[in-house]
Amino acid sequence: MHELPALPYAFDALEPHIDAQTMQIHHDKHHATYVTKLNDALKDHPDLQSKSLEDLLRGIASVPEGIRNAVKNHGGGHANHSLFWKVMGPGGGGAPSGPLGDAITQAFGGFDAFKEKLTTTATNVFGSGWGWLIWKDGKLEIAGKPNQDSPWMEGAAPLLGVDVWEHAYYLRYQNRRPDYLSAWWNTINWAEVEQQYQRARG
Ligand code: MN
Questions:
Q1: pTM of whole model > 0.90?
Q2: Cα torsion at 19, 20, 22, 27 (round to 10°)?
Q3: Domains of the chain (ranges plus CATH)?
Q4: How far is the centre of ligand 1, averaged over its atoms, from the C-alpha of 27 (Å)?
């Protein structure tokens, strides 16, 4: 059975950038529902229950058709949010140093260019979805994806993701997605993103 991971900090830890009520509803209700519905989808498939979430999503094409959409949506939702909580944290923000910082500079021409490209990509996701920094085919890429589509489904490793579903920002920012994104950069836990990068390369 898949389980809802505990939020690694208090609901109000990301204030003033992301408000406590949004964090509580987002984690305790939205993420919890993805986990519940993923487990429901897998209940008659013990062979799939024993797979890790990443393996399940990597192998989405071989998931039986009757539950494939449910696994894609709720498994993707579970994976995306599990990473999202970890790549944010109190006292976050700034720019990454070390190997990831160097790789970002090399791939995008500098941190500011990277920040602008990911912000633009996330701003322009139509409707609900995510903006991503991913590791794919041996290089860093920025991608916008709809719904809860997981980068794992295309053989990429997600390193940093920003949720642009309205439930992620509407209470504080209403329709102002760009303001939410601007604030979100102040929450990033770069040490965690660096770990994801090292893991993806290894
Ligand atoms: Mn969400």
A1: yes
A2: 140
A3: 20-86 (1.10.287.990), 98-201 (3.55.40.20)
A4: 8
